Amino acid sequence: MARFDHSVTAKPSATPAFGLVVVLACLLLLVPRTAASSHNEVTGWAKLFGPHPVDRGGDISSYVNAVAAANRSEALVVIEGTCASACTIKLAAKNRCVRPNAILWFHAALEGSFVSTTGNALLLDAYPSRVREEVLRRHMLDDMTLNPENTLTGRELIGLGERACR
C-alpha cells in the first residue's frame, strides 16, 4: 500500500513565461483604448504589438469613443485585415484609409438577442454615404449573424470612394 508524506507541501512556482504574460496583461490595462500608436493607428493593441489582422468588434460605444479620439487628434485610422461588427465604425474616422486586402463584416446591431434599431441607426450614421447606400442596398444590417454575403472588401470600399492606404 502506498503511503503519502503529508508533511511536505508543493508550492507552485511561477515560470518566466508566466511573469511575462502578467507584465504584458498589466501593460495592456494601462494603455487607453483610444491611444494612438507611433504610426497614428488607433488601438492599444497596435501601440504595443503593431496592427492586428483580426478585429472582431465588440461594444459599439468603445469604437465610437476611439473614433472620436482619433478625430480630435487627427490620427490616421488604418482599416486592414478582418474588421467585423462594431469595428466597421472605423469608417467614421475623418482621417482613415483602407488596405485593399481588408474585409469588413457587417451585421445588425444587437440589444440582448434582438436587432437594435437604435444601434443600426448609429452604425448607418457612422458610414460614409456611398458605403451606407451599399449596406442598405444589400440588406447587410437585416440579420444578426456574420454572413459571408454581408462583407465588403477593401477593394470594394476603395471603389466606393474610400481612400487606399499607401
Describe the model.
The protein has 166 residues and is an alpha/beta fold. The protein is 36% helix and 13% strand. It is built from six helices and eight strands, in the order ααβαββββββααβα. It has helices at residues 16-30, 44-49, 60-73, 117-126, 129-137, 154-159, and strands at residues 54-55, 77-79, 82-84, 96-98, 103-105, 110-111, 114-115, 151-153. A hairpin with a 2-residue loop joins strand 6 (110-111) and strand 7. Mean pLDDT is 75; it is low at 1-51.
How are the SSEs ordered, and which strands pair?
Layout: H1 16-30, H2 44-49, E1 54-55, H3 60-73, E2 77-79, E3 82-84, E4 96-98, E5 103-105, E6 110-111, E7 114-115, H4 117-126, H5 129-137, E8 151-153, H6 154-159
Parallel strand pairs: 1-3, 2-4, 3-5
Antiparallel strand pairs: 5-8, 6-7
The number of helical runs is 6
Number of separate strands: 8
Give start-end ranges of low-pLDDT stretches.
1-51
Order of secondary-structure elements: HHEHEEEEEEHHEH
Cross-sheet strand order for the largest sheet: 1-3-5-8
Distance between the termini: 73 Å
Radius of gyration, in angstroms, nearest whole number: 21 Å
- What does the overall shape look like? globular
Task: State which percent range the strand residues make up.
Answer: 5-15%
**Percent in helix:** 25-40%
* Mean model confidence by pLDDT: 75
The computed structural class is alpha/beta
